# Entry
Amino acid sequence: MRIARLLSLVLAFLTVGALVAPSASAEPPFRLPGQVTDNAGVLNSAQRAEVTSAIDKLYAERKTRLWVVYVDSFSGQSSETWGRNTMRVSDLGSYDALLAVATVDRAYAFLVPESATDLSSRDVENLRRNQIEPALRQNDWAGAAMAAANGLAEGPAGGGGMSWTGVLIALAVIGLAVLALVLWQRRRRRKRREAELAAARRVDPTDPRALAALSLDALDDLSRSMVVAVDNAVRTSEHELELAQEEFGEKDTEPFMRAVSNAKTTLAQAFNVRQQLDDAIPETPAQRRDLLTRVVVAAAKADRELEARREAFAKLRDLVIDAPARLAGMTQQVVEITARLEPSQQKLAELHNEFDAAALTSVSDNVDAARDLLKFADEHITRGRELANRPVAGQQSELVECVRAAESSLAQARSLLDAVDSAASDIRQAAATLPAAIEDIQNGIKQATELLKEGDVPQAAQLSEARDAAAAAVATAQRTGAVDPLGAFTELTKADADLDRLLAAVEKEREAAERLARAVDEALFAARSRVRAVSDYIDTRRGIVGPEARTRLAEAVRHLGAAEAKRSTDPAEAIAHANGAAMLASQAQSLANADVQNAQRSYMGPYGGGGGGGNMGAVIGGILIGNILSGGMRGGFGGFGGGGGFSPGSFGGSGGGGMFGGGGRF
# Structure
């Protein structure tokens, strides 16, 4: 009996212990105490030493710090969200990689900042899928960490050889073998250039002496990627600032207004220099290096101007505190903007019936794009409500991302529909004004003809040439004005301005001066319309538009500003600047169209499919910062890769590049 009572007591203690003991410890993101953290207790002392040795070797060879953490559970969060939040609270920088493993959840995240490795996103993905994940599936916890460290230490894989098809065909056709060799050499050059760009991104962009060590090709690629990234940061910050001004007023937002203004001014200097590099005048290698260095330094300065205000702006707009009210307000905005879709679609249909497609290039797909963004906003508002109603520790950052993504997509959807209204107004104003402009230039042609008949006219050859060009512009406007009134109006005002300038010089008459003043107004109207249209186009497609279009637009804005400044003091020069602005804006529109079409061909396929999913519109608009379309850009900057992680842009700088890697179950 005594033994039986003793066994019963032991059994009771064991039962209570089993009931109160947790099955697995769920840990929220936390600050890592060291580079190897084993809260799950899966490493013995020998294995810990092996992992530490591999991590130390990686740092000695690549100066990259790998942090490894084992826990039981990711506390209900996705592996990548847990990993990113842990990196943030641990103050990990752009040269710190993370391997996080939840041994009970059987989930992991492998996150590598772009600047921390010479590997491409594909190399990091191969390392994750082919070495780390298989080790984890075998419960080889130490082996997975050593695979990550050794893989990062190995550096990029060498360029591949000919394809099997090329080898087989080369046996019969020598010409195809030569072609395969050329393609192979191009791939090697591209891989080498990618490696040089990756190394260039690790250099302090504000240090001219450090930049002097880079090759011209790497410096050129770096300058292109930086102006795109910083231009996107400025545009995103400007949109977020508009929301903050509506909420808090100009007084509380004045420091951020000043930061955005300073960044725009500095970035404009970078674009101005970039325009010099893109023009037809060649530079010596030394001159080109100096100009490229100026672009990089100016872009970096603009970026840091915004980045310095990021935390203060986030505190001002604490999106978590009043998230439910914000989400309710955005739901109302979704309803209001949705109500505009059908009228805007009808307006576009009317415009297509009246005018040629060339006149509507900048707005032809705006309604469809706005509809996609509204769907994206609605999804994030719904997710935001779920997070706000069921607050879970560690999910505040996802709630902020939902609010920010919804805000940005609504702002862009509204801007897209506003652009349709503006295009309709501008085109119809041009159509209404075109007859008077034709009559005005015909008067100038008549006046020039009478002066030339009199003989002994100063600058007779130039005046005759300008008169003939004006007559040709009138003929073109009469032929095309009905289908593309804004384009015809732009060409007409340029010819009219040239003729008026010569008439004013030849005959100082009041009539010519008045006509010159009218020509200034017409040229400015055409330039403003062109610049506004292409700026809206790039702004709502900034995720895929490359540096060339942005450079032309920045130069067009500079010429437009000069035209405004010279309007009253030197009308002839003002007209020249306005015409230059219109021409550059047209070039920017063509380049931006090419970027969009190239991205669609590369990533959406010939039949409109593709891998972007429901978030494609947000990536195109630059709301989600990712690299789905970076291959379609000429000089795209960074982006998230591998695991498909995306986050919405916010007030602040470009972030200095993207994150390779990803995560999942094993």
Q: What stands out?
A: The first strand starts at residue 36 and ends at 38.
